[in-house]
Amino acid sequence: MDLHLNHVREIEAVAEGRSSARDAAVVESWMRCLTKHRLNPAARSEAYILPEAALREHRQRSEDLIAIARSGIENLYALVAGQNYVLLLADRAGVTVEYLGDEAQKQALRQSGLWLGAEWSEGRAGTCALGACIETGEALVIHQTDHFDSTHTSLSCTAAPIYDTAGRLTAVLDISLLCSPRAKASQSLALNLVQASARRIEMANLMAENRREWVLRLSRSPEFLDVDPEAALSLDGSGRVLGMTHGAARILARATGCDWRRAGDLIGRPLPDFLNLTTDRLEALTRQRPAAERFIETRDGHRLFAHAIEPRRLPVRMPAARGQLSPALRGLAGDDDPMTALLRTAAALAVRPLPISIEGETGAGKLTLARAIHDAGGAGPLVVVHCAEVGDDEALLFGRAAARRADQGLIAAAEGGTLVLHRVEELGPRVQARLMRLAAEGTYLPVGAVRPVPARLRLIATLAREAPALRADLVHRLGARLRLPALRDRADRLWLAERALAAEGAELSFSAEALAVLAAHGWPGNLRELSHLAATLRATVEGPVVRVEDLPPSLTGAPPRRAEAAGAVLAQLLRQTGGNISETARRMGVNRSTVHRQIRRLGMTR
Ligand SMILES: Nc1ncnc2c1ncn2[C@@H]1O[C@H](COP(=O)(O)OP(=O)(O)OP(=O)(O)O)[C@@H](O)[C@H]1O
Description:
With about 600 residues, this protein is α/β, with parallel strands linked by helices. It folds into five domains: about 5-195, Beta-Lactamase; about 210-310, no CATH class; about 320-485, 3-Layer(aba) Sandwich (Rossmann fold); about 485-555, Helicase, Ruva Protein, domain 3 (Orthogonal Bundle); about 565-600. It has 25 helices and 21 strands. One of its GO terms (biological process) is regulation of DNA-templated transcription.
């Protein structure tokens, strides 16, 4: 029977949901060809080779990658050339930008598309190793009749992705055969080889990009650690992840239960989020000690061997020890490791003019930390903007072109100092769009101006943990991210509670039972809730000891207040204060942004 017809029937059967002996990756790719790319399995199309000019453009864009990948590609080709393999390096679009093949087979290779400039995207060529690898981000073999288009069913192709240090797929490495044995298993060795080469290319890329940073290489076995490690990541001076190989992205993602496909989210997070390791232990992991002694553990309990490589030339800025933190920063936490690490990072950032964003639940201390960073950094005015009050009023923030001094915006007022945008997610969409330039380039456009104005200031944005109203592209421009833990997750919460009482000037202390209640409480209002509790206790408790009975029902288990009741209280307070937001906020014990938010959530009009 006609092989082509057979092939088409098999694809149609899979489309109808019949089970198939093919690998899941092949079946999924066939389904994408049918439903996403809308390809016809009965149609046959020759491999597409880009015109010269278009190919030149693709190669120019991949120049850096080709330069870094070159030795890896040549080594791989040297290993497989004797077995008639050709080697292709394709860019993200599936276009072959580098090629090594046997001159003697030139004609046949060109004909079959195993050639420079061939486009092997799945949408163009149907199921093929390069295209399916780009779609799935994983290494795979597409062997003979695994191909969707029966034009390609004589080929056997094996591909592995190459990721950049930010975790984005940038290229695919492929070795292919014009003719191969029938069994797909014949290509297992090819798969291993391509994956190892891709890993080494990523490693070379990471090392080239991070000569001045700490690099941490990881391996499951000490024997390979120093010669051919499985993964590597780079760290900035304060121990945050700067970049990684794909292997490292998988390890870090697994350690925190994240999806490795969103590796970009791992960048900027502190090392202890993933490993039981802090930067002050990196020196103990250099080659001075035998590899077998350099083991560490991931947060999900996997044991790894590590090799830390010191930054070259410039000495790295090691994180400030706790005693070296400025008093403003030091006072923000007791004995809590994540907070100590966060404050060290904040101290390192405070002396540089980089934008910073601070995330945390309501009352977690975002604004307080922003102020402390400003204090630690030194110079200039501090302008705090409550973004709910700005809304979409562009002129308020950015000022107007050719304005008199009094009409300048808040950004101009912060010149030479710090601009804190508190609850930045409360800004309207137009203001958010205008803010992008300030965050990314340090310039801004006053309303009505045609030329951007440079802003010499440090930008600190605070945002709620879940801030869906904020543009994703703005979030990424808001600089280094500091994530404040919720009070219930802090080991120093009882220390904070005692200190809050002391700050009220009261000669009071908590009984052991009362401390147990505080330790178990969920603290939805975080530090704000704690400081209000201290103020209330100071006013209500007579003896020297706060007992469980002295604590309010919200802590000791009375039913929580319902949203309707909260709405009624808010409405009543607004009426009593004649709509005065500041006074309402003061009486409710929350800040003004919270009142604005509740008004909006409850659909009230002012
Ligand atoms: N480290 C701290 N120790 C004790 N109290 C603190 C600390 N940080 C903040 N507070 C107190 O907690 C309250 C809330 O702090 P802050 O306004 O900084 O929180 P926030 O996260 O910005 O809140 P929101 O997002 O709700 O505006 C303030 O009264 C502040 O004084």
